[in-house]
Design goal:
Elements: H1 3-23, H2 26-32, H3 36-59, H4 64-88, H5 90-98, H6 101-125, E1 143-145, E2 148-149, H7 150-167, H8 174-177
Antiparallel strand pairs: 1-2
């Protein structure tokens, strides 16, 4: 690795670690354990911090390589609030509480797609390349488990998870296998 690549990769690594840690929802989840209001405030603070980090990286030539990743994470965080707002609407919250779990899961997670589209638009409008966003095309035929490869394992995992959600746990006696459960 040459000196310029090392200078460029340091800020990018920090940006990806910060972005995944913050935009991944960890602060929100931890704070929500105390109260919903603490979770809400942590989520807002996370979004504000990502926007601040992006503006700092964009204005500093040494940190400029990190700006692309931080912009994407900031966009995901900003538009990630869409799902939170939609599911907090009383009529939607009431419906989700009575809907079958697989359907509620699909609806809630479909609202998260609303954060991916603006992030892709930001990347496209700014003309960012895969290198600037640290996106690499991998080997789709790589080994996953033993002799099995991802074209087999990936779809199998999707089918199994979908089947588990569709079947659900109705009528399953958890007390039989969980001695410590109440």
């Amino acid at each position: 690795m040459d000196a310029q690549t090392a200078r460029r990769s340091g800020p990018q690594v920090v940006a990806w670690v910060a972005g995944i840690g913050l935009a991944g929802g960890l602060p929100y989840e931890v704070a929500s354990a105390w109260s919903p209001y603490a979770g809400f405030l942590a989520g807002l603070a996370t979004t504000a911090l990502l926007l601040l980090l992006y503006s700092i990286a964009q204005g500093n030539p040494r940190l400029a390589p990190a700006a692309g990743a931080l912009a994407i994470f900031a966009s995901l965080s900003v538009f990630g609030w869409f799902g939170t707002v939609v599911t907090a609407i009383p009529a939607v919250a009431d419906w989700l509480a009575t809907a079958p779990v697989p359907l509620a899961f699909l609806v809630v997670n479909a609202t998260k797609f609303g954060s991916v589209v603006p992030a892709a638009v930001v990347a496209y409008k700014r003309g960012w390349t895969r290198d600037e966003l640290n996106l690499r095309i991998g080997n789709l035929n790589a080994r996953a488990v033993g002799p099995l490869r991802w074209p087999v394992v990936g779809p199998a995992v999707i089918v199994v998870v979908l089947a588990l959600f569709l079947v659900g746990t109705h009528g399953y006696d958890t007390k039989r296998w969980c001695r410590g459960c109440r």
